[in-house]
Amino acid sequence: MRRLCAGVWVLCAGVLAACAPAPDPAPAQTNAALNGTLATEAALLRASATFGADQRDATRVAANDLLSRARSRQNNLISTLEALDVPRPDVRQITPVVLPTSPVQATPTPDLLTVAGGVTLSAPTPDTESTPTPNVTIPPAQPTNTLDPALPRLADVVTAAAVGSDDCALEPVVTFSPSTAQIYVVATAYNLAPGGVIGSRWLKDGQEVAYYEFAPDFRVEGACIWFFVDQSDFTFTSGSTYQIVLSANGVELQAVGFVVSE
Known about the structure:
Largest sheet: 5 strands, mixed
Number of helices: 2
Oligomer: single chain
Low-confidence stretches: 1-20, 110-121, 141-146
CATH superfamily of the domain at 153-260: Immunoglobulins
């Protein structure tokens, strides 16, 4: 009887065990995932801490190296000053000066234009209300003629009705009558070497009516030379315009005019 009851109990326990629900695996999976995440974060924290420590060590080494170099340069400078008998200043006697602070003026940002790959300032906007600046044309500088003192030169050019024994004008005049026999042009010549040519062009109303040359075989320095025309060269007409152009070796040097009047 006991064996039968024991067998019944065993059978009932097996049936109950078979009917009991199976355990849920989700909490175990969640715990495993959480443990994995925590392990990864701990590894990353250890790696970051190691990298930060390495950076601080490198910065400390660089700072120590710069400090060592600065001290070495300071010692070298002190040695140099002592060698030159320059007294070392006492930094405790130096009073720092506080510089006045001024407000920082903001710099306007200019408008920019991109031109051919470069940056160029845009053209300023013209002020339509301002008075326009008149255009001023500056004439070009005129060249200054510098006479070479070694070249032939003519001075004191005059006209006259006659010349004296020294070849100079007896009485310079600028007005002649139509019946004048001869009209002279007289000048003082300088630096005229032997073989040099002095020419005279006689113009009437802008047209050349006579031309004469003088080529001395001696040097002329400060002496009078002359040319003349008479009625056979051209008619002395009242009211016409007359001019004489003197040249030396083909270079025009002086010009003088005269008048024919009744």
